[in-house]
Write a structure and sequence with these properties.
It is a single chain. The protein is mainly alpha-helical. Helices cover 74% and strands 3% of the residues. It is built from 17 helices and 2 strands. The protein has a two-stranded antiparallel sheet with strand order 1-2. Helix 1 crosses helix 6 (152-161), helix 3 packs across helix 7 and helix 7 (168-192) packs across helix 15 (387-396). It is globular, with a radius of gyration of 24 Å. It starts with a helix and ends with a helix. The relative contact order is 0.16.
Length: 456
């Protein structure tokens, strides 16, 4: 490589790194703030479900909501539209985040991804084994996957409370582990919590995928154009017997990670559009249509500046974080405490299994798996990440909430066991958050003491 090309490569590498870190900072900020919103929604649901107005809580989510066109009408409960339709948008953002991380983030190479992948696998297997050890009966055993997931918003929200003294690579490790947890959770839902697949549904889903590929091949960059193919894909998954929210993951993984091709570079197109606007503004009698055309070109160039996977995720993420997830929490976290019968078959085992698996199994699995691969020399801890930091990540990984409750709704048809699982998730998430926050305060104090010692 000559000197000229090496000079060009350095600024380009810096530009890519700055873009990746700015996207990560924005993602973490939204997750941190939305964790508080999620907590408020869960608390409101618990209070409402255990208040004198508890009947109105359950009546609201079971109220029918219908959508139709002509004689074709679909009528389902409000709870269905939240859990099976709105949560598809949540999984769409998850899919796009996975796609972006695979392309240029924490999962872009084995060197970067090896530690969080192994840690996440340990954090899935150990909680599942603990749960199964406490639940041997066939029906309660179906909830083995409930304590295997990590809630990104809550975990990052608790980490944000510890301030900026936490090393950046600890945050990246937690985020990467939570994303891999989401991948594993999606695979678990697809394999273990989907019924027998209907071939007609697979055909409909295939048509939806072909429609998406056709639009991408034509070069359609507007996200609105993909709503109808996305709806076809969702209906196909619903008809197959698989959970329809998986359509969101498929669409997210199909979202392009590179800007669309165009005759002009986006910056050149923006410059030309602004120049045209300035020129037409100085004419004695400018025509309105000319301004509209230039503004359309400017908006298109602005849209093409970012790759679709980043642009669409940035647009949807706040809606998901501050709307979809809190609404899901409000609809699902309302567990009536007086309605839980610990003497019922399996209820106590489900609560204890979920509680111990998340609070004890998650950190144990994460720390043990990380220690083993580092000890064997298969990978190393990232810079500035100590074993105290890995312990903090493990404790925060015990905050299950959103995905854990979602899996519980798929695992249990019995209201008694479902309520027990939800209560176990809520209790475990609260305890894991307190333990993580307590250890985080000790950890930050150690970091400050070490910093003072080094300066002296």
């Amino acid at each position: 490589m000559d000197r000229h090309s090496s000079r060009q490569a350095i600024p380009r590498a810096q530009l890519l790194a700055e873009r990746a870190f700015s996207t990560l900072e924005r993602f973490l900020h939204i997750e941190a703030v939305s964790g508080i919103v999620l907590l408020v929604a869960a608390a409101a649901a618990l209070i409402w479900a255990n208040s004198p107005a508890a009947d109105s809580y359950h009546a609201l989510w079971h109220a029918p909501l219908s959508f139709g066109l002509g004689s074709y009408v679909v009528s389902q409960s409000l709870h269905f539209w939240i859990n099976d339709a709105l949560m598809t948008v949540f999984f769409l953002v998850v899919g796009m985040e996975i796609r972006r991380e695979i392309h240029e983030g924490a999962l872009s190479s084995w060197r970067l991804a090896s530690l969080p992948i192994v840690a996440a696998l340990g954090g899935v297997m150990v909680p599942a084994l603990i749960y199964l050890a406490l639940n041997g009966e066939p029906v309660p055993r179906q909830g083995w996957a409930v304590p295997t997931a990590t809630d990104i918003a809550f975990a990052v929200g608790v980490l944000a409370l510890l301030g900026r003294s936490i090393p950046g690579n600890v945050r990246v490790l937690l985020l990467a582990l939570a994303i891999i947890d989401d991948i594993i959770a999606v695979l678990i839902i697809a394999v273990f919590y989907s019924g027998g697949l209907d071939q007609t549904g697979l055909l409909v889903a295939g048509i939806g995928i072909l429609m998406v590929l056709a639009l991408q091949w034509i070069g359609i960059g507007s996200a609105y154009a993909y709503i109808i193919p996305g709806a076809v894909l969702w209906l196909g998954f619903l008809k197959t017997g698989a959970h329809p929210t998986l359509a969101g993951v498929v669409l997210g993984l199909m979202t392009p990670v590179l800007p669309g091709r165009s005759q002009l570079r986006p910056l050149d197109a923006m410059t030309r559009a602004v120049s045209d606007l300035c020129e037409r503004a100085t004419t004695p009698h400018p025509q309105e249509g000319q301004f509209v055309q230039s503004l359309k070109e400017l908006r298109k160039a602005q849209r093409d500046l970012l790759p679709p996977v980043t642009r669409v995720q940035m647009a949807l993420h706040p809606w998901v974080a501050y709307g979809v997830m809190p609404l899901f929490a409000l609809a699902n976290a309302g567990v009536g405490l007086d309605g839980i019968d610990l003497q019922a078959d399996g209820s106590l085992g489900v609560i204890l299994g979920v509680l111990l698996a998340l609070v004890v199994g998650k950190p144990l699995g994460v720390i043990m798996a990380s220690w083993c691969v580092v000890r064997l020399g298969w990978c190393r801890l990232p810079p500035e990440v100590t074993w105290s930091g890995v312990c903090l990540v493990g404790l925060l990984a015990g905050i299950g909430f959103t995905m854990s409750i979602f899996i519980a709704t798929l695992a249990f048809s019995s209201e008694t066991l479902l309520s027990a699982a939800k209560l176990g998730v809520l209790m475990a998430s609260a305890i894991a958050a307190i333990l993580g926050l307590t250890w985080g305060l000790v950890y930050t104090r150690r970091l400050r003491s070490a910093s003072v010692s080094n300066t002296v």
